[in-house]
Amino acid sequence: MTAYLVTVAILVCEAALIGLALNFQWGLAGLVNFGVVGFVAIGAYVTALLAPELGWLPAMAAAGAISAALSTGLALLSIRLEENYLAIVTIGFGEIVRLVILNEEWLTQGALGIADIPRPFAALGEAFGGDLVFIAFTGALLAIVFLGLEGLARSPFGRALRAIRDDATVTAALGKPVFALRVRAFAVGGAVMGIAGALHAFYLRYIDPSQFTPIVTAYAFMAVIAGGRGSNVGLLLGAGSIMALLEGTRFLKDFISAIDGVQLSALRLGLIGVGIVLLLILRPQGLVPEPRRRVADVLPGGRD
Amino acid sequence: MTDALSMTRRSVVAGLGALPLAAALRTPAIAQAADVPIGMVLPFSGATGAYGPAMKQAADLVVSKVNDSGGILGGRKLKLFIEDSETSATTSVTASKKLLEVNKVELVGGFWGSPEALAAKPIILAANKVQMLSCAANAVTEGDTKGLIYRLQAKSSQWGPAGAKVMEKIGARKVTVLAQQNPFIVAMVEPFKAEMARIGGEVIDVVMYNPDQASYRAEVEKAFGPEPDAVFVLPLLTDMVSISKEIYRGGFTSKVVSLGTGADAEGKFLQAVGPEVAEGIYHLQPAPPIESASYARFVKEMGAPEGTVFLFAGNAWDQICITALAMEHAKTQEAAVWTKSVREVCNPPGEFVDDVVEALKMIRDGKKINFNGAGCTCDFDEKGDSLNRSFYVQLIKDGKNTPFAVVS
């Protein structure tokens, strides 16, 4: 049981990393990114290709950097677009990445996927029961990213992004470089998604295009919406709840024998949907809403 | 967003603290001490969800058959846990992990799709349990398998040459290939080309398409456009339904040779497209022992019409049979031990037997048996791949699958 929970915890960490990145782009800066899975896939493939050559740390750094660079490129191309159009462009990007990975066999081995990706601290893992070392690594990584993004969200940069999200015109009128700030926000999110992809490759040790379907993007949005858009603490709770729903329902059929297993598999995905709908009805603002910051918090003596 | 609804740090901490309890609400279903837990990861949802239910039905049938006849290892019952792979490698990992850690299974079987099998392979091997496959990608049995992996299915590299032999039989020299981009099929293309070259034929074009396309018209026109003698169409079920309609609409005259995974799928293809569209399509799949009495019994127990060619359901059936027999032979449920008995009960020499209950009895009597299953002869080489795979070729005529040939 413990080892199974560790597996789930590792996947929660991965989902939380992706969610944090999306929360930064969409929750904080208001940039809809429906191509999340594309950036995760790029991170995973860069890691899978480079880790055997360069070792895990340079590979992971490269995954973050390349994903950030591509984010920047995509942002420069499309970020002036209105929200809905940005959504379409990013969906397109996600699909392009998937198709390139599937068809450029010389680089990605196409549909066959890449196996035997080395894991960080593999030797140490052997000695201390495998996944425990990896969960420590994953947890540390998540903590670093969480603190980093939380720091950014509290910084003047984060404040400017929130202002752009709430009203870009007013922010521009106040002299903030809206376009440059948006591009930077998008790049930061892309880097974190790339790192999440690296983690995915390290954990599964085998990646193929079928792992990077739009459902990854959907789970990330669910985590952000369930947790409370704009709140990083909420995101952690949201990612945890979504994974608890996904995995917890697995146990239903071990206990309910009245319903056939095949029906229950279908029902399970339905139940997850119902759970999310209920969550949104009961707590439309998310589990932990974004803290409402007052003028007084920023400017001592300012009026509320 | 009002202050009344905003969360205090205390309630957040309480919520965080309660999270692990969500999993503990239900105590895990561990099989009773006397039961022998075994598991399967099968697709019930996602792109290959159509194949799971028949496999589950077959597995359930054989488990109750073994249990009703008194079980194994002196009266212990098999307890089967089945998880949905959702046609996803990531889900297959958590599902396998759950089976291994929570249900403590000795076998993780099923595995319709190669990506699911490849992703689960490292964790099953790390746990020293047996993995049985119904998938085809060569890579699964490559590398170190610790003698724990068995494939009940033909390998991709065996499917390709079989296709070339069908081309030879129907007199097709100039052919094109229309193939889905997936690990099972990609690995067939090169062996097919090599075999075509050997028999003096020519592959003039290979057209690949992506799974889940909205339309296949461009690809169908590219493959059939040069008017080859025949087109080797390598699909799964859902895309073959669209492709065959596209071929019919286009009025192309080239012959169509396809795979049982797409153009039969245990009868589902004919149900989906009807007789006119399906007319004249050849399809091949690894042959179950069609002629044997035990196969006829298996089809009857599955509640299917006589003559149905089950491929994956037979694999699931056999996985359970082999596990039960090997455990009985090794006198233990310990996977690392009974894996050494698999070839003892499956490979010749030995007395031929194709009924699992009968076979269990013979093992108890100390006889050396050679078990033959519902999906294949169940003989394995040292890597765990199936030996002696012959392919059964059928031609769709007047809305029915009719036997055409057996190639090996």
Task: Describe, in plain words, how this protein is organized in 3D.
The complex is a heterodimer of chains A (304) and B (408). By secondary structure, chain A is an all-alpha fold. Chain A is built from 15 helices and no strands. Chain A has a domain of 212 residues. The radius of gyration of chain A is 20 Å and the shape is globular. The model of chain A has no long low-confidence stretch (mean pLDDT 87). Chain B folds into 2 domains: 179 residues, Response regulator (Rossmann fold, 3-Layer(aba) Sandwich); 149 residues, Rossmann fold (3-Layer(aba) Sandwich), CATH 3.40.50.2300. In chain B, α2 packs parallel to α13 and α3 packs parallel to α4. Classes of the chains: A mainly alpha (304), B alpha/beta (408). Chain B: Belongs to the leucine-binding protein family. Chain B: InterPro entries: BCAA_transport (IPR051010), Leu-bd (IPR028081), Peripla_BP_I (IPR028082), TAT_signal (IPR006311).
